[in-house]
Amino acid sequence: MLDEGAVRADGPRPGPAVIPAGDGRRAAALVRLKDRVDQLDRHREGADPVTMPLPRPVGPRFGDDCGLGDAGVVQERRSGAGLDRAMQEAIGAETDVPVHVVLLGHVEVRRLGHVTPQQQALICFLALRPGAGREDIVGALWDGRAISESRFLNLIAETRAVVGSSRLPPAGNGRYSVVGLTVDADLLTEAGRRADQARRSDDPHQERRWLRRGLSLISGPLLRPPGRRYWTWLDDAYDIAAGLESTIVAQSARLADLALTSDDPGPRDVEVAEWAYQRCLLAMPHHDDVAQALAELYRRTGRRSAALSLQRSRSRYH
C-alpha cells in the first residue's frame, strides 16, 4: 500500500510543486460522480458523459522521476494475506474473519478449506443476492437448465458442510442467504462512510486515510470471474457493477481532489492523486474519464512521456 509519508523516486527529488488552492472542493463534479449509477446507461451509449475532476495546473514543473515509476496502470494483484490485512484495516478490525468474499477483482472465496468451483459460485451468488430462491440459484449456476430436486439440495448441503450451518442456515420461505461472511465491497462502502464522517467533521487527514484504505482493497478488474462455468450470472449483475463503479469513481476522485488542494501540496500529494486514479483504473481499465484525468495529471506535472505512454496503452480498449 502506498505510504503517504514516503515518496518513491528513481532519481533526485525536486522541490515541492505549488498548486493553486482554487475552490478546493469541486462539489458539482463530485455530485455528478455520485450520481453515476443513474447516468451509467446514458454514459455507455455515449451521451451525458460523467467526467472526472481534472488536476489543476501546477507551478514549477518536476520531471518524470517523481511519480510511481510506471506510466501505465498498476496491474498488481494482492496476495491473500495482503488483501486480508487491507480488509481488516478498512474497518479497523483487530481480529481475523474466517471467510472473505472478494468482488473487487478476481471473484473468489478465501479462508475456506476445499471448496468446489460450484460451491464457490453459490457462496458468491448468495453474498450478492441474499434471499435468492431455488429458481434464482438454478438460473444462475445451471443457466436455467432443469435439474432434479435432489441435485439442488445436495449442492446446498455440501456447501453448508464447507462454510458451516451458521453461515448457510436453512431456507426461510424457500429463500437462501449466507451470513457472517466479510465481503470486500462492503468494506469499501464502510470505508467510504467513515470518510464521509471525517469530511463532515472537517478532518481531511482522516478522510484521506479512510479513502486510501477503501481503495487499497481493489485487487483487479471488478467482478472478474475465475471461469465461465457457474459464473455466467455475473454478466447480468449490472446493478452491482454500476454501484461499485460509482463508489470507486467517487472515492478516487475525492482522494485526488483532497491531495491536489491541500494546504501545502507537493510531490507527495501529486503521487497520492496519481495512486487514486490508478486504483480506479485497476478496477475499471476501460474508464476513459479516469484515464484522461491521469494523463492530464502527468502533463501538468511535466511528465509528457508518461502521458503519451498511458494514451498508447489505452488503444486496447478502443
- Count of helical regions: 12
Q: Residue ranges: pLDDT <50 for 5 or more in a row?
A: 1-84, 90-97
Largest sheet: 3 strands, mixed
Portion of residues in helices?
40-55%
C-alpha geometry: elongated
Mean pLDDT: 76
Strand line-up of the largest beta sheet: 2-1-5
Please give the alpha-carbon distance between the first and last residues.
30 Å
How many beta-strand segments? 5
What does this structure look like?
By secondary structure, the protein is mostly helical. It is 49% helix and 4% strand. The protein is built from 12 helices and 5 strands. It has helices at 27-34, 36-44, 80-90, 117-128, 134-141, 149-163, 184-200, 204-215, 238-260, 267-283, 288-300, 304-313, and strands at residues 100-102, 108-110, 132-133, 175-176, 182-183. The protein has a 3-stranded mixed sheet with strand order 2-1-5. A two-stranded antiparallel ribbon has the order 3-4. Strand 1 (100-102) and strand 2 (108-110) form a beta hairpin. Helix 7 (184-200) runs antiparallel to helix 8 (204-215) and helix 8 crosses helix 9 (238-260). The longest helix has 23 residues, at 238-260. It starts with 26 loop residues before the first helix and ends in a 5-residue tail after the last helix.
